[in-house]
Amino acid sequence: MDSLLPRERVEVAPGAVLVPGWLDPDRQHELLAACRAWARPPAGLRRTRLPGGGVMSVRTVCLGWHWQDYRYSRTVDGVPVKPFPAWLADLGRAAVLAAYSPGGAGAGRTAEPGQGANGADSGGAAGPGSGDGEGGAAAGRYRPDIALVNFYDDNARMGLHQDKDERSPAPVVSLSLGDTGLFRFGNTESRRRPWTDIPLESGDLFVFGGPSRLAYHGVTRVLPGTAPVWLGLRGRLNITLRESGLP
């Protein structure tokens, strides 16, 4: 989406921070290539069937742990879940640092993917634990081991929900690629107002933790044709990183 004025970092709610344009074009290309590799079978991109029989409109592939029916498992239809690469954990720590320590990390370039697109750990770059204050401490402690990669076509939506199937209270890191998604970020009590609607553009980072960790959130619509032409993606990809707290 083109904007006349620069978009600025904003704290949407306590512990919930938007960092616009955090992923630079090179990093966006690298993440897109990784997502396309992860989407391939086995244990590839699929629509999740809910306990009530409904099928989600988004298509998802999971790394580290597979989410389905409000629980996590290590297998998908009897096939092992794709591994969670070390470089992605490094990127998650850089994201937490960027959100909670402004100026502590920039442009999403801290970690290098190496061979991560094929599911192999590269070992990553040094983690961003050197930031100042609470933000640096939070980043240094962050150990994500789950990624949910969601693909939205023009008609896909995500209803308001809480990310509460993890045992860890660590923040959720959300990275956006492709078409702009209208992200609704609500309160921790119910799906009712108050909420804030936020356009998440390609390259944007959104982190929510602390008092906002269990806030209801969802995607009300996708704006077709808003992805950067140079990215070569129609639709929206959202990569969310989480710390499971599971053994």
Features:
single chain; 247 residues; alpha+beta; Jelly Rolls; eight-stranded antiparallel sheet; four-stranded antiparallel sheet; 3 helices; 16 strands; 32% strand; AlkB-like; broad specificity oxidative DNA demethylase activity; oxidative RNA demethylase activity; ferrous iron binding
Can you walk me through this structure?
Strands 1-2-14-11-16-9-4-3 form an eight-stranded antiparallel sheet, covered by helices on one side. The protein has a single domain, classed as Jelly Rolls (Sandwich), CATH 2.60.120. The chain has 247 residues and is of the alpha+beta class. Helices cover 15% and strands 32% of the residues. One of its GO terms (biological process) is oxidative RNA demethylation.
Q: Strand portion, in percent?
A: 25-35%
CATH superfamily: Alpha-ketoglutarate-dependent dioxygenase AlkB-like
- SSE pattern, N- to C-terminal: EEHEEEEEEHHEEEEEEEE
The overall strand count is 16
Unreliable spans are: 110-131
* First-residue to last-residue Cα separation: 41 Å
CATH architecture: Sandwich
Strand order of the largest sheet: 1-2-14-11-16-9-4-3
What's the tally of helices?
A: 3
Secondary structure layout:
Blueprint (H helix, E strand, L loop, with lengths): L9 E4 L2 E4 L5 H14 L7 E4 L5 E9 L2 E3 L2 E3 L1 E2 L2 E2 L5 H15 L32 H9 L4 E7 L5 E4 L10 E7 L1 E6 L10 E5 L4 E4 L8 E7 L12 E7 L5
Antiparallel strand pairs: 1-2, 2-14, 3-4, 4-9, 5-6, 7-8, 9-16, 10-15, 11-14, 11-16, 12-13, 12-15
